[in-house]
Amino acid sequence: MDLKTKYLGLTLKSPLVASASPLTEDLKGIQKLEDAGASAVVLPSIFEEQIRAEQLNLFYHTTQGTYAYAESLTYFPEMKEYRFASEQYLELIRKAKEKVNIPIIASLNGATLGGWIEFAKKIEQAGADALEMNIYFIPTDLDLSGNDIENTYIEIVKSVKSNVNIPIAVKLSPFFSNFANMAKRIVEAGANALVLFNRFYQPDVDLENLEVKPSITLSTSHANRLPMRWIAILKHKLNCDFAATSGIHTSDDVVKMLLVGANVTMLCSALLKNGVFYLLQLERELIEWMVEHEYSSVQEMIGVMSREKASNPNVYERAQYVRAITSYKF
Amino acid sequence: MYAVMDGNEAAAYVAFRVNEVIAIYPITPSSNMGEWCDEWAAKGYKNIWGITPTVVEMQSEAGAAGTVHGALQAGALTTTFTAAQGLLLKIPNMFKIAGELTPTVFNISARALATHALSIFGDHSDVMAARMTGFGMMASSSVQEVMDLELIAYASSLESRIPMIQFFDGFRTSHEENKIVVVPDDVMREMMPDELIKAHRLRALNPERPVIRGTAQNPDVFFQNRETVNRFYAACPEIVQKTMDKFATFTGRQYHLFDYFGHPEAERVIVIMASGGETAEETVKYLVKNYDERVGVIRVRLYRPFSIKHFIDAIPSSVKAIAVLDRTKEPGAPGEPLYLDVVDAFYEYFSNGNTKFAQFPKIVGGRYGLASKEFTPAMVKAVFDNLKLDKPKNHFTIGIIDDVTFTSLEYDPNFSIEPENVVRAMFYGLAADGTVGANKNSVKIIGENTDLYAQGYYVYDSRKAGTLTVSHLRFGPEPIRAPYLISKANFLACHQTVFIEKYHMLHNLVPEGTFLINAPFEGEELWNFFPLSVQKQILDKNLKVYYVDAQKVAEESGMGRRINTIMQVCFFALSGILPREQAIEAIKESIVRTYGKKGDEIVRMNIQAVESTLENLKELYVPQKITATRDVWPPVPDNAPEFVKKVEGEIIAGRGDYLPVSVFPVDGTWPTATTQYEKRNIALEIPVWDEKICIQCGKCAFVCPHATIRIKVFDPKYLENAPSTFKYTDARDKEFAGMKYSIQVAPEDCTGCAVCVEVCPARDKTNPKHKALDMYPQLPLREQEKINWDFFLSLPDIDRRRIKVTNIRQQQIQRPLFEFSGACTGCGETPYVKLLSQLFGDRLLIANATGCSSIYGGNLPTTPFAVDENGRGPTWSNSLFEDNAEFGFGFRLAIDKQKEIAVNLLKGLASQVGEVLVEEIINARQKTEPEIYEQRERVAALIEKLKEIDTPEAKKLSTIADYLVKKSVWVVGGDGWAYDIGYGGLDHVVAMGKDVNLLVLDTEVYSNTGGQSSKATPLGAVAKFAANGKPAFKKDLGWMVMSYKNVYVATVAFGAKDEHTLKAFLEAEAYEGPSVIIAYSHCIAHGIDMTQPLKQHKLAVDSGQWILYRYNPELAAEGKNPLIIDSKEPNVDVAQYMDSEIRFRMLAHSNYELANYLKEMERKYVVERYKLYKHLSEMSYDEFSIAGKK
User: Fold this and answer.
1) What is the ipTM of this complex?
2) Residue in A56, A79, A209, A211 to test binding to B, most B beta-carbons within 10 Å
């Protein structure tokens, strides 16, 4: 069975990619994923504010209270060098490239133009096969228009694109007035692939302390409907690859995503929940489905259920009212 | 090669290069030498033979000395660093090392020994106490000499086999930064010949050629055997001189055992050692050049072995009078050591019929500079003037006013020899604003990048929070040899606006000098802001005044309160030391050099600040008239007691140097309860209470490190004269029905740490952002809250018997008898000490180990332990670092003994006093507050009755009847004491079974000396002396102590479970045997957000890093399991806790893989440890248990 797929100019042995998660944050984890059959890994996102905050944090905490009292002029030894998460990240890319054979996709997260974009260059130099840009922020400024936000996104993509030669994928949220238009502009700005969608961690309310608290929950299969729809809609309209992410838990989910047009499916919650060797099961079940449905390669499957090719494409557009409309008879 | 460094670094520089084993232990001011070596070893730097020395931290200086002795005996080139009490602990081994003729050098930043008080500052009392050990002693006067003489000491020691002390003045030299010539490695190699090292190794213990060393000898041979070393001592001075000469051939810097400088026909000569010699020499130069005075100075380089020949040779034959200056005091001796040596040298010289001198010179001795007391050219001149007299004063003091025994010489403080071509700059900064760091940079910029010479010295506050720093910087074309503070500055900067209202500073400026102030005001507004004396001095001296709103520039650059770079740019722009453009470039380069490795962001912010500064720097047009109506704040309020005003107030005002001998207590006894008069006003924001939503839980008062947020419950009748803004509400607890409840903040004492706000659980239901406590700017609230605070204090304390002490919401109403200490903002130790003072303060004796708690507990000017309305309160003393448990144990023995005597007397007087009263007193149960109250009443009645009985027994009893009321003995100290240096004593004391309570304030590092690793430091934490992360697990002290079975043990963390902490304190005190409480104390040395430290307690407990438990032997006596685990099974990944503190994260910054590995180890360890405890707590106990049997 030919499970090969192409994503970001890379030929992957299967469409099962490990997306950014704690599982990909160190070499051991990455090696384990390779052993379990992941065709590529996306490293955890390195955040724009993380690069900045980490330095400020270290500086603040190693200088607070210093040179105040004669006996304790400082509180920490001076290290030979300080490797920040950003440098450790580059080191991880280097090591991963050295030790594993599957492609390594780095991930950079930010939403403003700034010096951090140059970090993309360092990622390329460290040997990453591709770069996933994770662009989002929560606009709370009432005077900031959607147009301004969209333009900033486009500028970021262009800026990164002009800094690196490796392919870039852009991971987006669906929250744009016209997502299709935004997707088009992103691709025109240079994105080689779209990763749909970014699943925000939504905060929660602590009822006891009346505080807002960060909350991390794993996805369920239900979350995959949104990317499924948009990949289907955009598959043959945009000249780029698609990665499906969010809510891919079962081999059926994988199959569905490939059918609507995803070049790869990205797994996170499923692996966190079931362990990395769940990949073997998914692969086996994918093959079983393909055998049963007489597909000999993944390439054959990709996009056969896209909006262009599906027998009832309007469902993608009017999903919410579809039953009401079709059940009405004069 | 030139470099700027301080004395400690210079010493460490050589020591690291010419040694193989280095044994260290922290003690101020020598700790930095060990820190440098540890850091360099961690970085893999090599010595001159291409190997990285092994650097080991021991449990005490005694341990370090033992290790040095052993390493030397086994053939390694070995060294150590220490000072003060640390040197004393090394003395036993030093006798051995010297007795065995073993070459080594001990580097000592000489410091005052604790006598009537502790002092961290410099004098020679420590090295003088070690002069009998047989070590040679070399004195260095300057940073350059530290580097040079240290190498000479190592080389001489190798050849002579006499071990050496190489000492220099603590702080004055150890911490002075100066531009020096670095001794190249190849010179070091030349100075340390292989054959001498080989000889050392061949003398080592080695089973290939076995010997025995360290025999025991009898009266028949010990004496004559001891005399065998004489020839080595006799040969040593020549060897040292030969080594000095050899050193000179490589470096051009020629030293002699005794260096004479001055008039070739000098009649008056000073003999002096160490940094004072620099001052004396510069003064001599000035007096000879300008006044042709026949004066000179002998600078002693090799003090032991003392070579009379070399000494006499160095002195000009014209000498008529000699003053010998000792930086030490030997009470009861006919004179101080160097003086007696000089007298003896002349006596021996003359006795032998020698004739170099026409007559036996007059020789007088004097003391100077104890504990870093300033020693200035003016004082040198006074000493020379004394020698002019027919009968010069002998056994004099210089630098103080002795109005009791009249030893002091007068001097003219205006006498100055400061050259015209030296820029002298002073900077008054706040510790948090980074002033010292920037000044250190300036010294480096100029010292290392220009032909100019530079010197930096920094004076710090005696408080750890909100502190003033004064930087003294000199720059000039000649080497700067001025080891004393600047008093005639030509540039002075005030980095914090408020300081000009608090401190007199402009008297330090010369006429026409430049004054720079960081202020948010301009023009007339700024002028009007200046206090009266400031305006007056500006006009009288015609000062040029510049100002900059550095805070604004800093905020715009993202630098918050750190205004250092901005003020540095202003200094360079105004001082003209370098052309402006060049200076700016140099600052930028220095920023990249300093901060580059810590990240581009920091560099970017600083560069931005540099670029925005000059446009904000302006000159003030000085109106030629005084407009101020107020002056600099008085140091203490008018209502302060006389002693506080006369003595402590003067110290606060910075005039302590001028206080005469007569005002001081003679035996180190000072009054308590005086911090209340030192209104420091350091908080930018203070908490404001909303009585409407407060749930009266008491947690705010519990966590407050400075006892500045207080609770009272009182009768409404007292509200009659309440100020209009005074807040109160109905007391909620049913026991206090009908009473009022108030929470009040001391606005001028609060440090603004905001921990009370963190802990406050009461939120406004309609606006959860608002809590019952929110922080608001202090300044607008200050006056109003001062009035409210005074009113609050005037309200009576509730009868302690009415307070349910087992419950924090009520217990916190107890008045703290530990208040407004000098601890860090947000300190994690002081809430425990305060709790002690609340619970048992009126009958509390504290034995306090040296460390943070002894500093905030007992550092002048004022003292934080307070008294209640009856005048009772904690009584406190600090013995040493290493003996605290034993010290407190002594308290217990004395109390018990006096109680025993009292009981015996009481029994004998029973018929006169009344049998019933006697029985009641003797058999009183004194476990609860009411029981103790009743006993106090009985004892008061007894004392009244005793007044009527005119017998010696009654009189005797009345002086000790107090001991019939239970006394609570607490031994308080940090982990350095309990886990390391004092562990042996702690172990022994708890094993003795007496009723002593030990409180271990566990910050998991030596906090007071700057965060060195202790055995309490957890695995993976980066600390000084553990720069590569602590490689071992934290010692489980509680576990070890529990093994005695009869010791009450608890581990507490108030931020995780405050009620548990309270319970443990009550149980420990009630337990009539030894108790140990190990208290998790967050610390600035953990690298955490000090405004939210309590979440670290929670994380530590939830992750299992810190288990809460109580081991109560009384339970075992009842057949129950004595161990109760009070925290849940770990439910948070310990890595989450570790990632939340910089001390752990730092390791990930330097060695990610190791950090992860250690994290993994810790994960396993915390789970395993919890299981172990759990298992122990679930074992069944029966009547056969031996626990609880005392």
Assistant:
1) 0.93
2) A79
